C-alpha cells in the first residue's frame, strides 16, 4: 500500500495553541509523505470517523493535575465503544514539565483507551514541553514514519 492511498486524521485539543502547532506539524509531515489528511478540533470530531481512516493522530492536552481536556471528554468516552483494529494511531501532545508528575498524563490515558479499541500503536508517545521546537519536529517525524511502516503490515 503506497502512502498516496492512505487517509489520516489529526485530532487535537488546545488552550494555548501549542497542541494546534503540534497538529499542524503532523499534518505537514503526513502531506509531504503523500497521505490525504484532515485536521479537526476534538470537540468538533466524532470518534466513529476514525473507522474510515488508515491513520489517526490524537493530540490532547493535560489540564490541571492530570485531567483530560474538558472539550475532549465526550470524544474520550465515545472511543471505548469502537472497534478500530484496522487503524494505526499515534499520540502526541504538549504539556508543561513544570507540573512534573502530571506532565502530559492525558496522553497516557488516550493511549490506554486506544489500546482498548484494538487499534495498532505506531510508536511511543511524543511528549512536548510547551511550544514544539525543532527536536520535537524530529520526534514527530519519527512517529509519522513509524505509522507509515505500521500501516503496511
UniProtKB/TrEMBL annotation:
SUPFAM superfamilies: Flavoproteins. The keyword Protein biosynthesis does not apply. Residues 8-148 form the Flavodoxin-like domain. The keyword Transport applies. InterPro entries: Flavodoxin, Flavodoxin/NO_synth, Flavoprotein-like_sf. Keywords: Electron transport, Flavoprotein, FMN, Transport. Its cofactor is FMN. Low-potential electron donor to a number of redox enzymes. Belongs to the flavodoxin family. This is Flavodoxin. It comes from Fructobacillus broussonetiae.
Amino acid at each position: 500500500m503506497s502512502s498516496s492511498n492512505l487517509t489520516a486524521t489529526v485530532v487535537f485539543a488546545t488552550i494555548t495553541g501549542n497542541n494546534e502547532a503540534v497538529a499542524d506539524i503532523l499534518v505537514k509531515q503526513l502531506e509531504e509523505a503523500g497521505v490525504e489528511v484532515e485536521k479537526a478540533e476534538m470537540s468538533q470530531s466524532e470518534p466513529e470517523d476514525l473507522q474510515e481512516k488508515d491513520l489517526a493522530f490524537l493530540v490532547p492536552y493535560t489540564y490541571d493535575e492530570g485531567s483530560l481536556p474538558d472539550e475532549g471528554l465526550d470524544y474520550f468516552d465515545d472511543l471505548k465503544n469502537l472497534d478500530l483494529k484496522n487503524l494505526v494511531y499515534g499520540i502526541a501532545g504538549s504539556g508543561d514539565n513544570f507540573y512534573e508528575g502530571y506532565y502530559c498524563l492525558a496522553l497516557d490515558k488516550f493511549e490506554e483507551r486506544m489500546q482498548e479499541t484494538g487499534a495498532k500503536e505506531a510508536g511511543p508517545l511524543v511528549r512536548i514541553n510547551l511550544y514544539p521546537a525543532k527536536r520535537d519536529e524530529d520526534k514527530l517525524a519519527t512517529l509519522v514514519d513509524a505509522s507509515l511502516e505500521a500501516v503496511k503490515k
